[in-house]
Amino acid sequence: MSQLQGEIISADAPLSNLGNYEEAYNNFKWEDVEKEFSWYQTGLINMAYEAIDRHVDLGKGGKIALRYSDASRDEAYTFQQMKDLSNQFTNVLRKHGISKGDRVFVFMPRSPELYVSMFGAIKAGAVVGPLFEAFMETAVKDRLEDSGAVAIVTTPALLGRVKIDELPLLKKIFLVGKDLEPIEGIIDYHAVMEQSSPEAEIEWVNREDGLILHYTSGSTGKPKGVYHVHNAMIQHYYTGKVVLDLKEDDVYWCTADPGWVTGTSYGMFAPWLLGVTNVIRGGRFSPSDWYNTIQSNKITVWYSAPTAFRMLMGAGQDVVEEYDLSSLRHVLSVGEPLNPEVVRWGLKVYGQRIHDTWWMTETGGQLICNYPSMPLKPGSMGKPVPGIQAAIIDDNGKVLPPHRMGNLAIRTPWPSMMRLIWNNAPKYEEYFRIPGWYISGDTAYMDEDGYFWFQGRIDDVINSSGERIGPFEVESKLLEHPAVAEAGVIGKPDPMRGEIIKAFISLMDGYAPSEELKAEIAKFVKEGLSAHAAPREIEFKDKLPKTRSGKIMRRVLKAWELNLPVGDLSTIED
Ligand code: 6R9
């Protein structure tokens, strides 16, 4: 049992997969990890084979791979069933002309069909693009258009948000639903699956061939397509082993949706590469439902996010005591800074250390983490994963000594590093502007023991409940509203969500500020883009601060909001 000693919580699991951190770090070689894949012997590479079929070939076909439940379904699928079903979908895609390199999107709530479709597409050599079900038509269209998607798997409820007529490249629409009426040009998923054989040839690929395209937000421009390749499986597997600490008999639950990179790298790839039973719970967050999920599935390893932990903390200890959470042995967090207060609470109430992990869509996998075998400092993101060299560097690439704040940077390359920003080479190059380093956009410092401490973002990217929101995308949507003349969007600190979206708006002539108008504008963004992109606060201003080139100065808006000095205004318009 770990205990709190000052601000260090002692290690609680010396027998974890990683073992002694320093020893593991110093003796690490990626090649040793590569040897654990079947392709190291066979030369035949495909992520889906390693995650699903391989376990069948090793005699574990009868083991439960997926336990799925939501308000209306409760189902379990073995590795054999996942193999057969994904093969069926591979055959369906091939029959419809989809082949290696094609972009196939999935736009639907969590369901077994979502995971089957993704693995089916990967087996066909396609690049999968997962989309949050919360996206509205503009968000969906931007991503399908940019990626040149040729196929999408979606549901009747979401189909209306796919602007088929405006997407000439989108040729195949697979609809997942019960008792569908035939619709012209739309393929009934279940009907074609029924006719499809569970035997399929996997498309063997190269390590550097495309696997997944995750759209994520930056501070300027539309969302960027972050492109990952099959080689990423090396990082997913290794971190699944030493960070998630997964073992044969674990029952694992990652609460993230596959629309977010955590929901793919660690919601499907890592657990299945390790052949572990993966629990997926659909539906919305509620403390009692979540605790019940842990209790009824006897979850042993649980990966979630600070906002969720803060909400669970807000729900109080009484709810916790109604459930038996004694199956838990390892708890992890990602997405935002994990408050020391939450870590202390987890220790007190769950009897568990919550292990923070740091990484990004672009990094494809965990890079800086806390491990069961390492003392934990509440508030710190931990230390680099073996095989990863992290440092704090200044804008010229000079490595800074401990306790100096600067750019959090990673030595290139590592197995799951993004390989492209789709259609946007200049954006990609920005991350690597200092030779030999990947610049994360986060600021941090390292302490004398080599622990990293998150400080903030360099750009204006907003992190609300762990979701990255680009201010530009929200501003663009706001400008489409007839009343809006100018809009500037910032993240405003919030105790529960980390940040909330606040919009400063100047109105067109003829419109008067009112609470009704605020509500209408917020609704406009919610319905056009997505609920999580809608501003929770709106403030009307006669004029917004702009540079002479016409860019809204978000840092000035932020300074106004926080009552801070506005800093250098030499580029302001007037
Ligand atoms: C996996 C994921 C990445 C950004 C990242 C940082 C923030 C992630 C964090 C964290 C503090 C942590 N972030 N983990 N901040 N502590 N442990 O979250 O990917 O959605 O691309 O977000 O999230 O700012 O740069 P993504």
The hetero compounds bound to this protein are:
ligand 6R9
What is the number of beta strands? 28
**Termini separation:** 61 Å
Q: Please give the radius of gyration in angstroms.
A: 24 Å
Proportion of strand residues: 15-25%
- Which structural category do the helix and sheet elements fall into? alpha/beta
The proportion of residues forming helix, as a percent range, comes to 25-40%
Number of helices: 19
Q: What is the average per-residue confidence, as pLDDT, rounded to a whole number?
A: 94
Main sheet characteristics: 9 strands, mixed
Assembly type of the shown chains?
single chain
Q: Major sheet: order of its strands? A: 4-3-13-12-14-15-16-17-18
Show unreliable segments.
Answer: none
- Any idea what the shape is? globular
